[in-house]
Design goal:
It is a single chain. The protein has 5 helices and no strands. Helices cover 77% and strands 0% of the residues. The model has no long low-confidence stretch (mean pLDDT 90). It has one domain (2-83). By secondary structure, the chain is mostly helical. It is globular. The longest helix is centred in the last third of the chain and has 15 residues, at 53-67.
Length: 86
């Protein structure tokens, strides 16, 4: 399962604003282009492990500052889906 975690974390840590907009649309998360670029820029500046609850919580707080609490809440739901281990 570690490979799966590495792939997801790598994608999050290298995402572009354009890719983020595509995923937001796919998962019905409302963000605008400016927010997507700012969030992507933040993600690329940090090495975040969304499988670590503390790191994920800090990331969601930063997303809330950029895109608002409702968007951060939706993104967190998406992260939780990604990190579920069946």
């Amino acid at each position: 399962m570690k490979i799966f975690e590495n792939i997801i974390n790598h994608k999050i840590n290298t995402i572009t604003g354009e890719e983020l907009m595509k995923y937001a649309s796919q998962f019905q998360i409302a963000i605008n282009t400016r927010q997507a670029e700012k969030i992507a820029q933040y993600l690329r500046s940090k090495q975040v492990n969304i499988f670590e609850p503390r790191e994920r919580a800090a990331l969601v707080k930063e997303i809330a500052k950029i895109a608002g609490p409702e968007t951060a809440k939706e993104v967190n739901k998406l992260f939780i889906q990604f990190t579920k281990q069946n």
